[in-house]
């Protein structure tokens, strides 16, 4: 079945891998579901003399309870039984429909999520964004206030780093610009030296982060400026890892702080 799914999927490697794992999850769901149904039938068969009459009694009592009809002031018969039965049927139908959709969605997302939550997987964002999120989670406290200068849109960072607060001054030339994958569309951004300490101090940050992925905003010699960032990444990706983009985190020294 997995081979059939791979043949039906688009020819790129990611789609084929996604189809393979989704189909594998479907097969296991069918196996577990069939096992559960089989066990249920075995229990019913073993205790059918007690279970089956009881089930018939429950259905019969409900059907009778919904049966009485009433006559309104105009003399038209209004069947409460029909309305109640229609409501229950519609409710059961909607329950089955939504359960089917949720199972279908869960199987489709299985190659990515497995049994993990979104905070673990960090879906729909770039690998570089994931690395920065992991680094900030490890290097800052949950209640930290972080001032960021970056050439990236930071919506996902703001969400996944909660309860931390991120403050990112958006350049006017990139405020309404939609970014493209792999930095195909350059976004204008503020450099740290373009902002005065007074501007940064307004939000009372605990940290200042520089995060740039486009070469115009950093030089090669800047890439290893933050030794903690380098150590963090090499502990996860190996000693030979070299930073392809610029990240530098430092504490912000407020006036009067010791």
Short description:
The chain has 258 residues and is of the alpha/beta class. The protein has helices at 2-8, 13-46, 48-65, 80-113, 118-121, 127-139, 155-160, 197-201, 227-237, and strands at 69-71, 77-79, 145-150, 165-167, 207-212, 246-251.
Description of the molecule:
Strands 4-3-5-6 form a 4-stranded mixed β-sheet, with no helix packed on it. Strands 1-2 form a two-stranded antiparallel ribbon. The termini are far apart. It is built from 9 helices and 6 strands; from the N terminus they run αααββαααβαβαβαβ. The chain folds into 2 domains: 2-115, no CATH class; 121-251. The model is unreliable at 73-77 (pLDDT under 50). Helix 1 runs antiparallel to helix 2, helix 2 (13-46) packs across helix 3 (48-65) and helix 2 packs across helix 4. The chain is an alpha/beta fold.
Helix content: 40-55%
How many structural domains? 2
Structural class: alpha/beta
Shape category: elongated
Following the backbone from N to C, one meets helices and strands in this order, namely: HHHEEHHHEHEHEHE
Give the distance, in angstroms, between the N- and C-terminal Cα atoms.
66 Å
Poorly predicted sequence stretches spanning 5 or more consecutive residues: 73-77
Q: Return Rg in Å.
A: 30 Å
- Tell me the number of strands: 6
Tally of contiguous helical segments: 9
Sheet-strand content, in percent, reads 5-15%
Major sheet summary line = 4 strands, mixed
């Amino acid at each position: 079945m997995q081979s059939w799914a791979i043949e039906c999927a688009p020819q790129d490697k990611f789609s084929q891998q996604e189809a393979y794992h989704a189909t594998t999850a479907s097969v296991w769901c069918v196996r577990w579901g069939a096992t559960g149904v089989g066990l249920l039938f075995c229990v019913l068969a073993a205790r059918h003399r007690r279970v089956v009459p009881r089930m018939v009694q429950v259905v019969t009592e409900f059907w009778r309870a919904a049966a009485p009809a009433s006559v309104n002031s105009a003399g038209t018969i209004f069947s409460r039984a029909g309305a109640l039965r229609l409501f229950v049927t519609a409710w059961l139908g909607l329950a089955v429909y939504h359960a089917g959709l949720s199972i279908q969605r869960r199987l489709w997302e299985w190659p990515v999520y497995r049994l993990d939550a979104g905070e673990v997987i960090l879906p729909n964002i770039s690998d570089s964004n994931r690395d920065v999120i992991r680094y900030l989670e490890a290097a800052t406290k949950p209640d930290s206030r972080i001032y960021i200068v970056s050439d990236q849109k930071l919506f996902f960072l703001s969400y996944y780093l909660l309860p931390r607060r991120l403050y990112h001054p958006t350049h006017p030339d990139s405020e309404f610009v939609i970014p493209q994958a792999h930095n195909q569309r350059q976004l204008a951004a503020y450099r740290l030296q373009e902002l005065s300490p007074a501007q940064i101090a307004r939000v009372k940050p605990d940290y200042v982060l520089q995060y740039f992925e486009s070469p115009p905003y950093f030089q090669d010699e800047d890439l290893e400026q933050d030794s903690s960032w380098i150590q963090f990444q090499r502990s996860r990706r190996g000693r030979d890892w070299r930073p392809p983009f610029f990240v530098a985190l430092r504490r912000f020294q407020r006036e009067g702080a010791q």
